[in-house]
DNA sequence: CGGGGAATATTGCCGAGGCTATAGTTGCTG
DNA sequence: CAGCAACTATAGCCTCGGCAATATTCCCCG
């Protein structure tokens, strides 16, 4: 084997991207932990609270997160136990049920969001001058549109809050 | 709560980065799976095979991956069972043991690397013209140097192959 | 040189989450 | 309208991997 494969610029490019992701994830997790939230729970709160009626069917919630439907069942179990969300029967389809953010869930999200935004500012967007940041985001957007089979066609529009998997609403 | 927090450009920036990461991770995992490797196993093979003697002490391997030491113990257990690595006693320190890549491990890595590089080319680096790619990488490098407490001071040098955690050799 | 603190690998125990099977609904179609 | 395929949520079982405890070894300092 060629011992220099690992100096291939493609490898270093991916390494860079993954290191940034790992670093940011770790900091986010630490900050969210202070508010008693895991990254997944934060993502669920985010997705629900930006949806009409602060609710989403379990399936749709799964489609917008990095979780399978059974994973959503379980995280909603935990969050319901903790009072952050509640289940509501869907009137039009008795197979479905809604997950709704509770007042406590909204409060929790409000508490953690400022720190979260500050963290992004401090460690990501604030590290670059506007031109460099814009170039970075343009590049990411292009790659995202390619790699993400179902990216919002508008291409610049609403990006998910965090950790969204390859399966966001298509 | 301000309903427009989620349109904050900081949120969309992080969302973009995380979506790209998720998309690439998923494609990498699929391709590696065809060669019977998980992302973690691929990372272990990569780290070992780029190390002198194709070996690394368990602790050092843990420091260079996204795993804790017990996680390394376990993944090496599995890979030893599958014949991809072997354990060797460390002559100078009887507490330590080396993980060594076997010939089968090297072969497995050789088989999967071309497809991996092709994937990076197809979905990441090849999506941008050289100037845009360079701008993207410059931005990532700056953010990496900030968020990664122990980035290689050279700042442009050797990046890890994949999924490296915040704990790479410092 | 002897004893205590640090380092190393491993193991037990646990939570997270994926896959698959399952039960309950829905809606289409013959 | 009966039956059947598709959809929805959930539960069982499994793997992965982290934390804390443990045994072993090393090293430094009195």
UniProtKB/TrEMBL annotation, chains A, B:
Superkingdom of origin organism: Bacteria
Record-linked InterPro entries: HTH_MarR-typ, MarR/SlyA-like, WH-like_DNA-bd_sf, WH_DNA-bd_sf
Gene3D superfamilies: Winged helix-like DNA-binding domain superfamily/Winged helix DNA-binding domain
Compositional bias ranges of the Low complexity kind: 158-170
Disordered: annotated span: 151-170
Pfam families: MarR_2 (PF12802)
Annotated protein name in UniProt: MarR family transcriptional regulator
Classification via PROSITE patterns: HTH_MARR_2 (PS50995)
Residue ranges of domain HTH marR-type in the record: 10-145
Gene Ontology biological process terms, A to Z: response to stress
Listed GO MF terms: DNA-binding transcription factor activity
PANTHER family according to UniProt: MARR FAMILY REGULATORY PROTEIN, TRANSCRIPTIONAL REGULATOR, MARR FAMILY
